[in-house]
């Protein structure tokens, strides 16, 4: 019977691929071991770079925060003395650190909501309200994000200069004298906040534009058919559907402002009278000006814990509203 069946099928041609039932290996998928090995092989360059330039420095900094590591230990790190939590205890008795912590909080509490709010307004206008030259305005608002801090500092020093600046010229037109924005303990931090908002609102704008374009047009049209006004549509439809974007923008903006360094470093160097001294700038001074590297490392981990705590709080408060 089998011989008859084979004759009916005809002889197998030379070079024909074997059927799956014959145990051929051409259609066989790579084993899990081969796939795993290939994955590790392609991941190796990243893992090496991450270990050398990220993981090792992070662990080394954590160890340094429990020592009196200083300039003398750069060539002999093993001679650094282990002092336990002394650096952390000293931090909270250091008036300069506490002031820098307060300044950083002030910067975040005022600057982050302004950046989110203005970014949302600009995104809505560019997405719905402006029809002509829309691309031009988008590029214009985003340009400060990709501009170097040196160029930004030159522009803002000209704007804020109390004698020959742009604002001073406007004040002189009405017979007033412009205040020294960067030289005043009261006005220096608000001036830096305005500069930071101007510089970072483009990033938030791009995020919100992407979120607005993801809202189905059918929802907006249904609201208009129901007689909803522009404000009602924005409050009841746009904002609720943008909550995931608001969450993301709030978290990344807050983290960036908690790490604020460039603006005070370039514009005021922390002055006047430490009124613009932030934690990151204070950390830089302790580590690279005074070479108190163990103390600066402890400062970095306190800031890390603050960032983690605020981020977790934001996720818990805002994530419930995004479900």
Give the secondary structure arrangement, pairings included.
Layout: H1 2-9, H2 32-64, H3 86-91, H4 95-129, H5 134-142, H6 149-160, H7 166-173, H8 188-213, H9 217-225, H10 230-241, H11 243-258, H12 262-267, H13 279-289, H14 293-319
Runs with pLDDT <50, length 5+? 1-8, 20-25
- Please identify the structural class as seen in this structure: mainly alpha
- As a percent range, the share of helical residues equals 55-70%
Q: What percentage of the residues does DSSP assign to strands (E)?
A: under 5%
How many extended strands?
Answer: 0
Mean pLDDT over the full residue set? 85
Q: Please give the radius of gyration in angstroms.
A: 30 Å
Instruction: Characterize the largest beta sheet: strand count, sense, and whether it forms a barrel.
Output: none
User: Can you tell me the overall shape?
Assistant: globular
Number of helices: 14
List keywords for this structure.
mainly alpha
